[in-house]
Amino acid sequence: MQTRAFINDPEHTRVLVTAAAGNTGQPTVAQLLDKGFKVRALVRRDDARAQNLRNLGAEVWIGDMSSLRDIRLAMKDVNRAYFCAAIGTGIVESAAIFAQAAGEQSLELIVDMSHVQSRPAARSKVTQDHWLSEQIFERSGIPSVHLRPTFFSEWLLYISGVIRHGRYITPFSKDSRSAPIAAADIARITAGIMGDPAPYIGKALHLHGPVEYSHEELAAEVSRVLNKPLSFEQVTPSVFLETLGIPEATVLRKHFEAVAIDQQEGLLAGGNDRIGQQIIGAPLMKIEAFVKANQKAFA
User: How many angstroms separate the CA atoms of 30 and 107, rounded?
Assistant: First the structure.
């Protein structure tokens, strides 16, 4: 890939944010708008979350990531883009469509969301698809930056219902380790790269939160912050999904089964938040602050 000189002028730069109603999408939209960028937010449906994005000041587009027509229209007059594909099928196809449309529009930059354990021999089909997507963007000729975060702190919100009842359940072993990172910090990192991408082009950035925990230690920290006894329970991925009310989520089940092994091998471990702090120029959010910020979810 040839080195490209970036003109970082937010006022004259339009950024496309995909999955804009999601965990990282919505705060990324907000961060970019705060920095003065024009933002086009791509969502799947026109609902309350889409209206919230309009209220922030974003230009909201309704579209399907698997539709070349929709992505071509969403990319019109866009300069830089954030690609975020949810856990599921069709990730590689969406990446190929995105890269094709980006090439047609001569985009300056793609920042894509991947996994910290991204690799060609990934056990999880989802993780492997993220690695393949990285390769598609690298070969597209569009300058690209790959974000490889470990677990999001938002994992705690997924199980907030059982936490409210004094349980902490996970499909992963109690001594598996990671340093959770908040989606709000991912958004700040993404916006920081959009504002000054040159140092990160062609890199896969491993993103960790500020403190590493085992799952058992994380349960204890949540218990301490909430001042509420929590019983740690490791369950099978199937039981976990049944407890969350989504027993038919086969793709998630297979992904969690693979991630359980990845964790045992230490592929999600680490607590080096240097890269994130360098990009945003501030400390990353600790679990204590995250739980307190989302206190209502656990009450």
Answer: 21
Q: Is the pLDDT of residue 5 over 80?
A: no
- In this prediction, residue 2 carries a pLDDT of 47
Listed in sequence order, the DSSP H helices in the chain are 25-34, 48-56, 68-75, 91-104, 125-139, 155-158, 160-163, 183-195, 215-226, 237-243, 250-264, 274-280, 287-293, 295-298
Contact criterion met (CB below 8 Å) for 170 and 222: no
Strand partners, 30: none
- Beta pairing partners, 132: none
Give, as one character, the DSSP assignment of residue 210.
S
DSSP letter for each residue of 48-96: HHHHHHHHHT-EEEE--TT-HHHHHHHHTT--EEEE---SSS-HHHHHH
Residue in the block written with tokens 């196809």:
93
pLDDT in tens, 213-269: 999 999 999 999 999 999 999 999 999 999 999 999 999 999 999 999 999 999 999
Chain centroid offset of residue 23 CA: 7
For the chain, domains (ranges, CATH) are 12-153+181-209+269-284 (3.40.50.720)
* All residues at 6 or more sequence positions from 178 whose CB lies less than 8 Å from its CB, including other chains: 150, 151, 208, 212, 213, 263, 268, 269, 270
80 strand-pairing partners: 15, 109
Output Rg (C-alpha) for the chain, integer angstroms: 19
